[in-house]
Amino acid sequence: MPSGEERIFRFALEVCRNPAGAISRWKSVSGRKAAGCIPIYVPEEILHAAGMLPVTIWGNEFSPASSGGVPPFVCSVAGGIVSAIRSGKWEEIDAWVFPSTCDTIQNAFEVLFPPNDDRPRFPFVFPASADAPGAPEYMLDRVEAFREWAGTVSGREVSEGALERSVRVYNENRKVFALLEERMAETPGSFSGTELWAYARAGMALPREGHTEILNKALSRSRAVPGPMRAKVFLTGMLATGPVMEALDAAGAAIVGNDLALGNRHYSGSADESGDMSLSLVRRHLRRDPCSTLHGSGWARIERLIERFAWSGADRLLMLRVRQCEPESGDIPDLADECRGRGIPFLCLDIDLHAEERASARVRIEAFVEMGE
Fold first, then answer.
1. How far apart are CA 286 and CA 278, in angstroms?
2. Average pLDDT over residues 204-219
3. Cα 5 to Cα 2, 131, 166, 294, distances in angstroms
4. At a CB cut-off of 8 Å and minimum separation 6, what does 333 contact?
């Protein structure tokens, strides 16, 4: 009989493999609505306070992924999201939120979204820079508009008390996810790459309270020191896929840190739990770590990445680049130069969510792990 930790991991894997099923079950039990959040940085606390289930969608939830009807020059995240919507594969979603994390996502809202889909949509346009004059005031206006929209869609007003409770729920979830990341840095190999992927990804389709419970149960496992690892890897980029994590595990690599968009960038940073809650969400957004898809790209992001790399104790840096992701691609030359100057083994591995080259990824990851042994 599988242990409690094994059952939790299997449940997380099942959610990753069939998020639509998990959403459907939640809606059936709760009688409430689900909101599809295009990645990343949607203030989900507002949707949660409105009684909705925020669902972050990455474009490869259905197999095989398809980019039919989507221009070939868009990245596979955007292509997969829009093609799934166009082909009717997200019937469980009642409303959509499109953040302005890149030009493609903004255009998806205006151009690529099917014109006959009349589900409510909210274009959440962020300030171009956290330091721009008027950025807090502009962001506050957007948060208040989003709050009103969520209340209208759900039929439940987003009261200050409800939003305060949701902020606490999300802060607790982020705290526990941070503990998982700390355990991986302190005891390399304590959680496999596949486990990190499953636990991070499952949180995209589960209510935050349930996800926190899963993470707590995962952390309750024994702190026994695993066997020796061949490499300690820090991951950066937009997202990892299951096959990439499996290849890292097979090569004997321990993941000791990450700033993945489907990872640390999604789960890090708490909001203040006192005062005006809308303003608290604004402040959380504007003080995020530098990100190429948001404010503070370029060298600010690289400096922060190297700082977190050193803290994690990693001995090599792996960038997982979604093909045709322009914001992330722009950082690669400077990041590669910085790693070269510091003597940090660096690899940029392309990820295509529609046609993943598993054999090629395994060979390159194995060679990367062998570097410096």
1. 13
2. 97
3. 8, 44, 27, 36
4. none
